[in-house]
Design brief:
The chain is α+β, with helices and mostly antiparallel strands. The protein is built from eleven helices and 41 strands. The strands form ten sheets. Strands 30-29-28-27-26-25-24-33 form an eight-stranded parallel β-sheet. Strands 1, 2, 3, 6, 8, 11 and 13 form a seven-stranded antiparallel β-sheet that branches. It is globular. The protein binds alpha-D-galactopyranose. Alpha-D-galactopyranose binds next to loops.
């Protein structure tokens, strides 16, 4: 903070304060009143759903401007935003002028809130782009903790550029400081038992004639021995690894029984194998390079990730896909020579850049571990990162991806809109219908992941164009604002979800993330991470870990290996949770599971811990019901009519409710 920013201002105070400051009235503190612009606080503690906080400029770096009025000073932010401030009970007032920045050209809707010691002191109501600015002038005497909040106005964060212009805290004595939310990260998942347990998907789809690969995921003291009864002819199980391979030529369904045993016991589970055109009968689970390595990704990162699936034990919980995102292909217009190379081979097929010398060896290694491999391209001439992609080469690229041995393609709209112009759903569907057809013509199964950020309400038609999953939103970042506004805005999309076709609210932002090359621990608190994984599991979302798997700490590993939570995500019925209750700062979401029981998330979106309640009536169930805490894997007993839990700030209690067993 500069002296200029802390302006001692007794002279400009209202008469009473000026007199008090001058010593004419007795006051507890003799310090002069001072002003602290919020831009002088440590803004690394400010979280927002997009971009970085702008000091005296908008989130996109323009001069601050609301409804045509320019402001020289203030904070340019973006919903969902939170800035917690320790006032040390020394502040007297907060003044600011707020609104949507003019750079959105009239778009965007947000609500500014000022929270003092857990109570709402001021709210702007929902403000839209071009609305006249609103002034805040509120007393803060006696308040210890202030939180400046911008919500998305209830409709997602697109264009929600929020300006806190001329925002100043007046104080006497100790200066306000940004508050670190210092919640301990509590490990909740109990350690896996030494006795065998079979985890992960209970149903798997394969097309007739395609290579089959499925690993029976199991925990328990090693060595484990695997067996299968009623495995269809054409498939074989490796007894020491649990990896099932082979080919099935006839359409139909098979009910195999797999076992995993060790010196301490034996676990048994049914595995349904469906031979048809449908893939991804449960949401894909795996890892993707983007949220950690982004444009810095190399082949070594992918080998290391695959090895980490095995070493860290992720594979034993059903984690399967190892996916390369953007930047595996040439980008000659880049200063980085490791991206340079011939874009296509003589026969027109896409080449990898020199960072990926042998894709085939890479996928072979991944497959040898019982895992699957994913890759990325765009229907435009270049990817979002500017690398060469599949425009006018769709057939050749699909063939290349299949020859290399990939099992998954993320197909990202990116530059397509720059070369192909059009309108309406047919325009949005066209490149996906084209590539979907090319993938289906390949002699191996390639899961098709659409990435076009939800345009044209893709959840209503993604399945028709052959999509196995489709992004419903823009890109996630590791902030409460981004994750919560994406996650809690998925209500209504459940119409499009089911076995083989899933809504994708983007990849997980837990562990060490950073969009390469430098990484940092996720900025989500422990409770926010429980909310993230619980909500994505309830939503039947693809679970793609976005962090550096070589840096998995105990908390993150624990978060990703709770088999009862994963079972919610992988439930074979494939329903996506519905929002049952939307309170002011709490929500309840419920997902019906295959056996008729329900997984229920009680979420607290507020700043203080609070009780959240769900009645059996609201779940369309009747009591008495048995309640189980899924994160702690603990029974909570029988409840007649309802369940209530105290839920921490930004946290969740995830339960399963079921009819009690008949005595
Ligand atoms: C888009 C996608 C991201 C990532 C990048 C790669 O932003 O939404 O998930 O694939 O492109 O450039």
């Amino acid at each position: 903070m500069t002296m200029d920013q802390v302006r001692h201002c007794a002279a400009s105070l209202p008469l009473g304060l000026a007199l008090a400051a001058a010593g004419a009235w007795p006051m507890a503190s003799t310090a002069a009143a001072a002003e602290q612009p919020i831009t002088a606080l440590d803004l690394s503690r400010c979280t927002q759903g997009f971009g970085e906080p702008g000091i005296d400029k908008s989130v996109e770096g323009h001069p601050l401007s609301i409804a045509g009025t320019h402001f020289a000073h203030g904070l340019g932010s973006h919903a969902e935003m939170q800035l917690p401030i320790d006032l040390k009970k020394a502040a007297t007032r907060f003044t600011a002028t707020v609104g949507v920045d003019d750079e959105t050209d009239g778009k965007g809707s947000i609500e500014f809130r000022v929270i003092g010691d857990g109570k709402r002191l001021w709210s702007s109501g929902v403000m839209h782009g071009k609305d006249a600015a609103k002034s805040i002038d509120i007393p803060l005497a006696g308040i210890a903790k202030l939180i400046l909040v911008v919500t998305d106005g209830g409709d997602g964060i697109a264009y929600d550029h929020a300006d806190w212009s001329d925002a100043v805290i007046t104080y006497q004595g100790a200066a306000p400081e940004s508050l670190v939310v210092n919640e301990p990260k509590v490990v909740l998942t109990p350690k896996s038992a030494p006795t065998p347990r079979i985890n992960g998907a209970k149903v798997v789809g394969v097309r007739p004639g395609s290579p089959f690969l499925f690993t029976v995921a199991a925990t328990g003291e090693r060595p484990l021995h695997f067996e299968a009864v009623d495995l269809p002819a054409g498939l074989t199980l490796d007894g020491s690894t649990g990896i099932i391979t082979g080919v099935l030529t006839q359409r139909g369904e098979h009910d195999a029984v797999v076992t995993a045993s060790n010196a301490l016991g034996k676990a048994t589970r049914h595995l349904r194998i469906v031979v048809s055109d449908r893939l991804a009968l449960t949401p894909p689970m795996g890892w993707n390079s983007w949220n950690c390595f982004a444009s810095a990704v190399t082949e070594a990162n992918i080998y290391a990730a695959a090895d980490a699936f095995v070493k860290a034990g992720l594979r034993d919980h059903g984690w399967t896909y190892v996916n390369i995102d953007d930047f595996w292909m040439p980008k000659n217009r880049d200063a980085d020579a490791t991206l340079h190379g011939d874009e296509r081979s003589a026969d027109g097929k896409i080449n990898a850049n020199p960072r990926f010398p042998s894709m085939k060896k890479l996928t072979e290694r991944i497959h040898s571990l019982g895992l699957k491999a994913g890759i990325y391209s765009s229907p435009g001439p270049t990817t979002c990162g500017g690398c060469v992609s599949s425009y006018h080469h769709e057939r050749l690229d699909a063939e290349r991806i299949a020859e290399w041995g990939f099992d998954y393609l993320k197909y990202d709209w990116c530059s397509y809109g720059e070369v192909e112009k059009g309108e309406g759903l047919e325009y949005l569907k066209k490149p996906y219908i084209l590539m979907g057809g090319m993938l289906r013509a390949q002699p191996r199964d390639i899961l098709f992941s659409l990435c076009q950020y939800g345009m044209g309400d893709v959840w209503n038609w993604g399945e028709q164009v052959g999509g196995n999953c489709w992004r419903t939103t823009g890109d996630i970042t590791d902030s409460w604002g981004s994750m919560s506004s994406i996650g809690f805005n998925q209500a209504g999309h459940e119409v499009g979800a089911g076995p083989g076709h899933w809504n994708d609210p983007d990849m997980l932002v837990v562990g060490w993330v950073g969009w390469g090359p430098s990484l940092h621990p996720t900025r989500l608190t422990g409770n926010e991470q429980y909310t993230h994984i619980s909500l994505w599991s309830l939503l039947s979302a693809p679970l793609l870990i976005g962090c550096d798997l070589t840096k998995l700490d105990e908390f993150t590993l624990n978060l990703l290996t709770n088999d009862e939570v994963i079972e919610v995500n992988q439930d074979p019925a494939g329903f996506q949770a519905r929002r049952i209750i939307k309170g002011d700062e709490s929500e309840v979401w419920a997902k019906t599971l295959e056996d008729g029981s329900k997984a229920v998330g009680l979420f607290n979106l507020g700043e203080e811990e609070k009780p959240v309640r769900i009645s059996w009536h609201d779940l369309e169930l009747s009591g008495p019901l048995h309640v189980r805490d899924l994160w702690r894997q603990q029974d909570l007993g029988i409840q007649e009519d309802a369940f209530q839990a105290t839920v921490p700030r930004h946290g969740v209690v995830l339960i399963k409710v079921a009819k009690p067993p008949v005595p």
